[in-house]
Specification:
Oligomer: single chain
Mean pLDDT: 96
Number of domains: 2
Helix content: 40-55%
Largest sheet: 5 strands, mixed
Radius of gyration: 22 Å
Strand order of the largest sheet: 5-4-3-7-8
Number of helices: 12
Bound molecules: iron/sulfur cluster
């Protein structure tokens, strides 16, 4: 499987935090061998030392400022200049994973201060700028990844984006049909409406191949950015079950349908069903299902 290029907060790898510490996170550690990491620490890059006085995000005159409490320094211009400088680096990134709660890196988890009191949550300056300028790039912080559904969705998106970029290097009309075919069930689960658009796009003959690729790429990324719900998974799983049930004896069929109902009631996890479906696809030699990214959208070691 292709390794997605992921921008990470440097403190996941080195002791660069304001207090001289490093962040140890189990999910980030597990992910590292399967990605091409690019580490960045905005606060170190703008010349603040390690350790350094704490920075907070404050609201002043309806604007957010990057403020160092002990020195009373407003470092907003410095951080914004740095973010501007790294924009080109973000153009071919498959995902971004930042440190939660940080005034630079937090994704909606950073405290926002007004006149010395916390008035709510916001994003750190780097995260905010990415959300604004590169909304198509999967962006999370390690705090949010503790939610299994967010973690699963983040993995799906970064591996699909890396797959798409790799596909572009060898793209041909025939390969586009295979690519689309392999993603059908995953797209169906995330965004059925856009799946239909994508299908029609692949079949169009009034566009040049380059135009088709450009449109396909942006719709593909948009479709996968929608987090699949349990109901959507069930819809896909029932559809897949249709490939097996006519080949099963009544007891097996009842058992499979019973498992699907237990998933509906949140009694079993998605991964249990995906493993079972993979097994059934091997047993009944359903090669079309085995080719579906839905059954294995990222390396199995990453689990969820
Ligand atoms: S959270 Fe961001 S700014 Fe803070 S140490 Fe980590 S990488 Fe640097």
């Amino acid at each position: 499987m292709i390794k997605p290029k992921v921008l990470l907060s440097r403190c996941f790898n080195e002791a660069v935090r304001y207090n001289g510490g490093k962040v140890q996170d189990e999910r980030v550690e597990r992910l590292k061998p399967f990605i091409e990491p690019i580490y960045v620490c905005p606060e170190v890059e703008i010349g603040l030392g390690i350790p350094r006085p704490r920075i907070i995000v404050i609201k002043e005159n309806e604007q957010k400022k990057f403020f160092q409490v002990d020195t009373r320094k407003d470092l907003t211009k410095e951080i914004l200049d740095f973010i501007q400088k790294i924009q080109p680096l973000l153009r071919d990134i498959d995902g971004i994973l930042l440190k939660s709660k940080s005034p630079s890196c937090g994704v909606g988890s950073t405290n926002l201060y007004y006149k010395g009191s916390i008035i709510g949550k916001t994003s750190g300056f780097l995260a905010e700028s990415i959300k604004l300028n590169f909304p198509e790039i999967p962006l999370e912080d390690e705090g949010r990844l503790k939610d299994p559904e967010i973690y699963y969705h983040f993995l799906i998106r970064i591996f699909a984006l890396a797959d798409w970029r790799a596909f572009l290097k060898k793209a041909s009309p025939a390969e586009l049909i295979s690519f689309h075919s392999a993603y059908k069930f995953l797209l169906k689960t995330c965004n059925e409406e856009l799946l239909k658009h994508l299908g029609r796009l692949v079949a169009r003959s009034d566009l040049s191949f380059d135009e088709k690729l450009s449109l396909y790429g942006s719709l593909f990324i948009k479709a996968l950015s929608k987090k699949p719900t349990r109901a959507k998974h069930l819809n896909t799983l029932y559809h897949m079950a249709g490939y097996f049930t006519k080949k099963m004896n009544p007891k097996e069929k009842r058992h499979l349908l019973n498992l699907l109902e237990r998933y509906r009631r949140n009694k079993i996890e998605l991964r249990t069903l995906l493993e079972l479906f993979k097994n059934l696809a091997f047993r009944f030699e359903e090669n079309y299902l085995l080719s579906q990214k839905y059954l294995q959208p990222f390396p199995e070691e990453l689990d969820f």
